[in-house]
């Protein structure tokens, strides 16, 4: 590598770092998470091994034998040499000897029975209940309700029971409480009715907002083009405000505008309409405001792009169309719009991609409501993975949602690149002369 | 169609660009608005086609007062300097555009486009896009588009400025041919005197928002109204020489010439003489002595700068094949009948 290449990479390094950290890494992690069952309950590191009654009950009938089930459930307590040795160690050898003489080799089904047996001690009483409970545990031969940190520890414990060896593997997998690799997320995603609902919502959201963005952006660009310059730039500045305003503040203003004691409700109140939250009153209302809130932001970008594209049309061409007899409308229809073809296509494709993945204005305004009426795909991913009302954050399922968007986004980008013939687009200005 | 501009005034903000200009273009005539940059010739043209509005005065096409009509309703054809073809339309659509916006039916449009394409010699280019055409071809398309709806007047704004020298020569005669064939009234805006003189019936020479002289090209050349007109027309340009009158001779810096009969008795004692290069040379005798300081070979003829003793330069144009060389001392004569005399403030005497 010569010095110039090194210098080039040096200058590129910050950009590369940002691309890797904030673009590539999230994509790779999304793919990775999407094929796990990670959630709040599994954690994101490895997990422990635990069997208890409820896990045992959740194991399918034919996965392990009934004998195994009974052995595990009825293992209970036994006064054996092992336990007695531990008792001699923790309490005293005398106590252990007395218990051996009283109940040596006896079996008890429950801890209470074991504790009762310990109460039988006369010469070496264990007085406190707590100590008695601790002593009872020494004779526990069941592995239920005990957490094992590693698979080896769990298998060793299993080996100490009478459970048939054939069921060890099955039990180990059921006892694992951490995350594991799975394709269940994708299957679940495609089986849920709500997924199709979110997909339909997303399509509606993108289509309506895009139409508003491009249509209104064009309208603003063309109408301000025909205004006197000072007036035009004033209007453009006003219409640019939604874009430069902090989103939280911008949406807060919309909320103030629409909530039940807000501007809209107050004004309509004078007309005798009962005050209501206009944004969240019905699904239709929510959609109208979602499109307006996003649309005003997007339209301002379109307005700027289209305005500069119109300005790039040579004045003599507009003069020519006027002396050729074209009215304003004909001038827009035949001269201006055809030459805005590329800016319009660019804005459309760019905004399709950004709208597909954007959910922040919906999150701030309706949060997907009322009900799930305005829940779009990206918002569903966010809710599932990071802000679940139930509290169990399903990272894996959320990532699966996101992965679908990543795939759609990449396919769409490739199509656009091909469709726009990107090389030609950057090499030659689209507006000639 | 006769075009009549009366007391036309145009202001941009505080600045008055054109003050009470009067111009009449006869029907079927081609007239040139000639002048240096900023003289108001383009402003006048854009006002006639309606792109600029008048601040005062009136404009008539024939008997119709179009002073307050927008350009859409004036029925003018304009050829712009950069042709202003619509890049996204085919040549056919470009030419058809003025008819299309008037909602003529498709068959009529096709017929008229074919006719006009025939007239400007581009019938084989109709399906192409403007970007695929050469400058001269684009010019023909622009002419066709301007002429297709038979406008009252054809306005040409520096139509040859963007062409290379050879094409310019070709299009000069082509535009004139098309204008004569259609018999349309035409106004040509140009800063090139040769274009104006070779293409137009009359020239309106403008300076500072005023028409200085309006005349036929040869008349204007031979008989300029003032020193500005004399200096503007002619290539190589006229030379101006300070002179004083002693008896019946003009005394120049280095020599003297006789006062011609038509000037005799009308001249002040101090004046400027305008000598065109073709009226200074050995064939007119001798008497004006100087040194050849510059020789330009043009093939058919040579151009000489002769510097007199007091530093004044007089240009001379001579048939080639003569033996004068740079640095030679010469004494040449001036054709006194064709000397133009101007007073100190530039007025023609």
Structure write-up:
The complex is a heterodimer of chains A (433) and B (349). Chain A has helices at residues 3-34, 53-58, 66-74, 81-90, 93-103, 111-119, 129-137, 151-159, 168-175, 184-191, 193-225, 229-244, 247-258, 263-270, 283-311, 315-323, 328-339, 341-357, 360-365, 377-386, 395-420, 422-427; strands at residues 49-50, 77-78, 107-108, 147-148. Chain A is mainly alpha-helical and 433 residues long. Chain A has three domains: 1-26, no CATH class; 49-150, no CATH class; 193-427, MetI-like (MetI-like fold). In chain A, helix 6 (111-119) crosses helix 7, helix 11 (193-225) crosses helix 15 and helix 11 packs antiparallel against helix 18. The model of chain A has no long low-confidence stretch (mean pLDDT 84). The mean pLDDT of chain B is 88. With 349 residues, chain B is α+β, with helices and mostly antiparallel strands. Chain B folds into two domains: 3-229, P-loop containing nucleotide triphosphate hydrolases (Rossmann fold); 239-342, OB fold (Dihydrolipoamide Acetyltransferase, E2P) (Beta Barrel), CATH 2.40.50. Chain B contains eight helices and 20 strands. In chain B, a hairpin with a 2-residue loop joins strand 12 and strand 13. The A-B interface holds A 314, 316-317, 319-327, 330, 334-335, 338-339, 341, 431-433 and B 46, 49-51, 70-78, 80-82, 84-89, 97-98, 100-102, 130-131, 145, 149.
CATH topology of the largest domain in chain A: MetI-like fold
Compute the separation of the termini of chain B in Å.
37 Å
- Count every beta strand of chain A, where a strand is a DSSP E run of 2 or more residues: 4
- Which architecture name of the largest domain in chain B does CATH use? 3-Layer(aba) Sandwich
Quickly give the CATH architecture of the largest domain in chain A.
Orthogonal Bundle
SSE order of chain A:
HEHHEHHEHHEHHHHHHHHHHHHHHH
Strand content of chain A: under 5%
CATH-level-4 superfamily name of the largest domain in chain A? MetI-like
Our count of helices of chain A gives 22
Largest sheet of chain B: 6 strands, mixed
Helix count of chain B equals 8
């Amino acid at each position: 590598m010569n010095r110039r290449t090194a210098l080039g990479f040096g200058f590129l390094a910050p950009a590369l770092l940002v691309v890797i950290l904030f673009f590539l890494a999230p994509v790779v992690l999304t793919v990775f998470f999407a094929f796990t069952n990670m959630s709040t309950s599994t954690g994101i590191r490895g997990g422990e091994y635990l069997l208890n009654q409820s896990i045992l009950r959740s194991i399918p009938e034919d996965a392990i034998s009934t004998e195994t089930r009974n052995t595990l459930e009825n293992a209970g307590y036994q006064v054996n040499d092992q336990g007695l040795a531990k008792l001699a160690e923790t309490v005293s050898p005398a106590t252990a000897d007395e218990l051996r003489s009283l109940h040596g080799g006896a079996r008890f089904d429950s801890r209470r029975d074991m504790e009762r047996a310990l109460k039988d001690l006369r010469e070496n009483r264990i007085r406190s209940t707590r100590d008695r409970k601790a002593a009872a545990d020494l004779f526990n031969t069941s592995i239920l309700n005990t957490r094992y940190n590693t698979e080896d520890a769990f298998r060793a414990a299993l080996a100490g029971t009478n459970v048939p060896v054939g069921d060890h593997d099955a039990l180990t997998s059921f006892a694992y409480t951490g995350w594991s690799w799975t394709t269940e997320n994708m299957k679940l995603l495609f089986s849920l009715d709500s997924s199709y609902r979110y997909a339909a919502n997303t399509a509606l959201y993108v289509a309506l907002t895009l139409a508003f963005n491009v249509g209104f952006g064009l309208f603003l660009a063309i109408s301000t083009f025909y205004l006197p310059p000072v007036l035009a730039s004033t209007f453009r500045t006003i219409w640019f405000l939604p874009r430069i305003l902090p989103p939280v503040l911008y949406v807060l203003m919309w909320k103030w505008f629409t909530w039940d004691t807000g501007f809209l409700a107050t004004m309509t109140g004078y007309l005798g309409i009962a005050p209501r939250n206009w944004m969240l009153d019905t699904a239709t209302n929510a959609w109208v405001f979602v499109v307006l809130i996003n649309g005003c932001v997007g339209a301002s970008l379109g307005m700027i792009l289209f305005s500069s594209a119109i300005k790039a049309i040579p004045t003599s061409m507009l003069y020519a169309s006027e002396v050729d007899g074209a009215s304003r409308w004909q001038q827009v229809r035949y001269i201006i719009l055809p030459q805005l073809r590329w800016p319009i296509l660019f804005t459309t494709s760019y905004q399709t991609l950004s709208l597909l993945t954007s959910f922040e204005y919906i999150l701030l305004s309706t949060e997907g409501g009322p009900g799930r009426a305005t829940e779009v795909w990206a918002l569903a991913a966010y809710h599932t993975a990071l802000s679940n009302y139930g509290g169990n954050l399903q990272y894996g399922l959320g990532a699966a949602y996101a992965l679908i968007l990543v795939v759609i986004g990449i396919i769409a980008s490739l199509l656009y690149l091909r469709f726009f013939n990107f090389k030609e687009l950057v090499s030659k200005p689209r507006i000639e002369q | 169609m006769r075009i009549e501009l009366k007391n036309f005034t145009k202001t941009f903000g505080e600045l008055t660009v054109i003050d009470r200009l009067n111009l009449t273009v006869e029907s079927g005539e081609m007239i040139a608005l000639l002048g240096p940059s900023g003289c108001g010739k383009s402003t006048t043209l854009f006002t006639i086609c309606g792109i600029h509005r008048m601040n005062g005065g009136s404009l008539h096409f024939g008997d119709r007062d179009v002073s307050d009509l927008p350009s859409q309703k004036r029925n003018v054809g304009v050829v712009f300097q950069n042709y202003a073809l619509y890049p996204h339309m085919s040549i056919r659509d470009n030419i058809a555009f003025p008819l299309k916006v008037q909602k003529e039916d498709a068959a009529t449009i096709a017929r008229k486009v074919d006719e006009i394409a025939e007239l400007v010699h581009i019938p084989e280019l109709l399906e192409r896009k403007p970007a695929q055409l050469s400058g001269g071809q684009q010019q023909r398309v622009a002419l066709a588009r301007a002429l297709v709806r038979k406008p009252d007047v054809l306005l040409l704004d520096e139509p040859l400025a963007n062409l290379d020298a050879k094409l310019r020569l070709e299009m000069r005669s082509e535009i004139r041919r098309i204008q004569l064939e259609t018999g349309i009234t035409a106004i040509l805006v140009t800063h090139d005197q040769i274009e104006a003189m070779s293409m137009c019936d009359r020239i309106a020479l403008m300076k500072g928002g005023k028409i200085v002289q309006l005349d036929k090209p040869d008349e204007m050349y031979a008989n300029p109204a003032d020193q500005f007109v004399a200096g503007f027309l002619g290539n190589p340009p006229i030379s101006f020489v300070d002179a004083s009158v002693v008896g019946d001779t003009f005394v120049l810096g280095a020599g003297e010439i006789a006062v011609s009969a038509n000037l005799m008795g009308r001249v002040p004692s101090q004046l400027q003489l305008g000598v065109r290069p073709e009226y200074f040379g050995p064939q007119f005798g001798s008497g004006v002595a100087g040194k050849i300081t510059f020789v330009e070979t043009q093939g058919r003829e040579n151009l000489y700068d002769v510097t007199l003793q007091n530093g004044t330069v007089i240009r001379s144009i001579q048939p080639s094949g003569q033996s004068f060389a740079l640095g030679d001392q010469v004494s040449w004569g001036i054709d006194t009948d064709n000397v133009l005399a101007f007073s100190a403030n530039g007025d023609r005497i």
